[in-house]
Amino acid sequence: MKKKDQKKLRSAEWFSPQDEKTGFIHRSWMRNQGYPDDHFRGRPVIGICNTWSELNPCNGHLREIAEFVKRGVLEKGGFPLEFPVTSTGEVLMRPTAMLFRNLVSMDTEESIRANPLDGVVLLTGCDKTTPATLMGACSVDLPTIVVPGGPMLNGIYKGERIGSGTFLWKIKDKVKTEGYTQEDLIEAEICSARSAGHCMTMGTASTMACMAESLGLTLPGAAAIPAVDSRKKVLAQISGRRIVEMVEEDLKLSKILTRKAFENAIKVNAAVGGSTNFVIHLQAIAGRIGVDISLKDFDELGSKIPLLVNLMPSGEYLMEDFYYAGGLSVVIKELEGHLHKDAITVNGKPISSNYQDAECYNREVITKLDTPFKKNAGIAVLYGNLCEDGAVIKPSAATDKLMVHKGRAVVFETIEEYHAKIDNPALEVDENSILVLKGAGPVGYPGMAEVGNMDLPEKILKKGIRDMVRISDARMSGTAFGTVVLHISPESAIGGTLALVKNGDTIILDVPNRRLHLEVDKDELERRKAIWAAPVPHTNRGYVSLYINNVQQAHLGADLDFLVGKSGSIVKRDVH
Question: How many helices (H) and strands (E) does the chain have?
Fold first, then answer.
């Protein structure tokens, strides 16, 4: 960076202040790591925000990826400094990683704001690490680029593709009806996770990578590169170079994350068959950067976009196949007529120019817009007396004949009651029933766990039935499938109508007309509400208590109310 530009650097307030004593303090202790003097004299400082953790296997390779980012930063004359934030892994964290998404966003935000950083590279992977770090970065609003960790290689079991996550939801059926042994499951377990990276289905992690690219926050083609492909390292290095240029150009997040960018992301998500979790995470990101996105936007903008990608859980292929077929670049090119072509991306170019040369190499994996894999498959938003503030369903992963359905409610007050009763032969349930789960929303679980795609009762599976209507205030994994209504708002734990549903009540699901209705008259609901008592909070201390008392409802993105918006990058007081 030229000398005349030094005053533009935020880091200069730490390393080159007018008060030499202050500069001495900041530089001196950093020197014990062996940095030469020129690193403190006008070089843009690039923070590498790393969600690496051995407790988060999806992100276990990001320690190595950080080194390639550093190479690129150094090549462009920047000063790279890696820092950790809490890593939220889906497979180990209890009660749910979603409980800690907002905590990670706070960690990210304050780590960026409090330190002498001019630009940021976000190393992400597992589901919540992408939205969480983006939320935090948006609240500071520095030049920022995302390097997605990438999916695992395809899982192959008995000669067929096995999708990480998606196979998980079939285990009960495999054991109960197909005779899978413990040895079968162990072998499938190994086959479904055979390399570094996140789930290789179009689950939430892959959806978040596609979200970041379609928002313009990654370099073109970044979303689908497998974690162990050498091109992932190349992408990381080039991203390191680019973030230095972004600092020089003052290309902040707020210049990229416009309303147009969010609308593009909604349409691309529909075309790839992305996770329903996309809705809740995109709203939270929009809330931080200050763009107004409502739940209805996801339906109005995305529900009529056809599904172009034949990937699990909506199809049969996996992310490695998607990459070899041309990846997200092909999808964005196919959707060109539906997108805002002038939306700016991190390379400084409009999104339309980044994908002009994209080619598809396998039309079984990525179809053309005029001959889609499925029509009108984007996320649908439902309303009715059972979900006054909305609920969502993913038609591409549902059963067509159940999209209009009327059935008797079989109610589980908690997830524990569900597990205790679902396979009881005496449970009054048939394939026309509607399974109802309460207590799984942001406040109720707490954290809004991925338990909405409840396994079917054993006696239903034995009849050859593979899907039933299920409704809850929970989420479901992006790797999951079924006719599952999710994110019911307001949730049961705060007295939403869902809390008042009883066994035997009639529920009407009408997806074409966007309706979810409980056939109980208003007077009866008022009587039930009068005797309803809120559940006792799970705890009265620590972060979980803070979360319970301040979390917004699902239709708003489930952020903490005091985190919405941004504080910016200025810190007025020094350390001494």
Answer: 20, 14
Strand 45-50 vs strand 79-84: parallel, antiparallel, or unpaired? parallel
Strand, helix or coil at 23?
Answer: helix
Q: At 400, list the tokens.
A: 């067509």
> How many degrees, rounded to 5, is the angle at CA 283 between CA 439 and CA 441?
0
Q: Which of 402, 381, 493, 498 is nearest to 442 (CA)?
A: 493
- For residue 5, name the pLDDT band (cuts at 50, 70, 90): very low
Distance of alpha carbon 362 from alpha carbon 311, whole angstroms: 13
Which residues, including other chains, have CB under 8 Å from residue 431's CB and lie 6 or more apart?
A: 460, 463, 465, 468
pLDDT over threshold 80, residue 324:
yes
Q: Domain residue spans in the chain? A: 44-153+201-354, 154-194, 382-535
Contacts by residues 498-501 (CB-CB < 8 Å, ≥ 24 positions apart): 498/386, 498/387, 498/436, 498/438, 498/471, 498/472, 498/473, 499/438, 499/532, 500/525, 500/528, 500/529, 500/532, 501/386, 501/409, 501/411, 501/436, 501/438
Q: Report the percent of the chain where pLDDT is more than 90.
A: 87
Q: Which CATH code is given to the segment(s) 44-153+201-354?
A: 3.40.50.2300
323: phi then psi, degrees, rounded to nearest 5:
-65, -45
pLDDT of residue 171: 80
CB 46 within 8 A of CB 80: yes
d(CA 113, CA 49): 12
- The pair of three-digit structure tokens given for residue 318, joined into one six-digit string: 């996996």
One-letter amino acid of 55: L
User: What CA–CA distance (Å, rounded) separates 103 from 87?
Assistant: 10
Task: Answer yes or no: pTM beyond 0.70.
Answer: yes
Question: What confidence tens digit (pLDDT) does each residue in 347-386 have?
Answer: 999 999 999 999 999 999 999 999 999 997 789 999 999 9
Closest CA to 120 of 69, 171, 174, 184: 69
382-535 to CATH, choices 3.60.15.10, 3.50.30.80, 3.55.30.10, 3.40.50.11540:
3.50.30.80
Residue type, 228: V
Which three-class secondary structure state does DSSP give residue 155?
strand
Cis peptide preceding 313, ω within 30 of 0 = yes
- What lies within 8 Å, CB to CB, of 551 at 6+ separation is 102, 442, 443, 446, 558, 559, 560, 561
